[in-house]
Design goal:
A hairpin with an 8-residue loop joins strand 1 and strand 2. The chain is globular. It has a two-stranded antiparallel sheet with strand order 1-2. The chain has 126 residues and is mainly alpha-helical. It contains six helices and two strands; from the N terminus they run ββαααααα. The longest helix is centred in the middle third of the chain and has 14 residues.
């Protein structure tokens, strides 16, 4: 597990993020690089530009976090472990993320792997 420290006042506690097999595959090509995984400056602008280039018009706030929580709970069925990773209580995890997706959808989500494709839009720092 990797320890991450939050940057906002209410998240300045360490969190342990388990690197699951599919995340490992996404990060593996970058293993010899040094520095941050995502750009530290202008991230939101770069993210929005990449989103628009990919043809994604609507992006709800915290959708990556909510997707992670919903798919994790449906697949691994462990609200305590998920609460530890997300910095919430198990009760909050259960109330917010339970039954948002089916176990079959969650299995597909956790099997998303990188593939070489012209449709992939990279998020590159400038």
């Amino acid at each position: 597990m990797e320890a991450l420290k939050g940057t906002k006042k209410h998240t300045c506690r360490r969190r342990f993020v388990k690197i699951l097999p599919n995340l490992r595959e996404w990060l593996l090509p970058f293993r010899k690089l040094k520095g941050y995984v995502a750009p530290q400056e202008n991230f939101r602008d770069l993210f929005d530009e990449a989103r628009e280039d990919a043809g994604i018009k609507r992006w709800p706030e915290n959708s990556l976090r909510h997707s992670f929580g919903s798919y994790h709970l449906a697949h691994f069925k462990d609200e305590k472990a998920l609460a530890l990773e997300m910095g919430n209580s198990p009760e909050m995890i259960f109330a917010r993320y339970r039954e948002q997706v089916t176990p079959k959808e969650a299995e597909r989500y956790w099997n998303i792997r990188p593939a070489v494709s012209a449709k992939v839009v990279p998020l590159v720092a400038r």
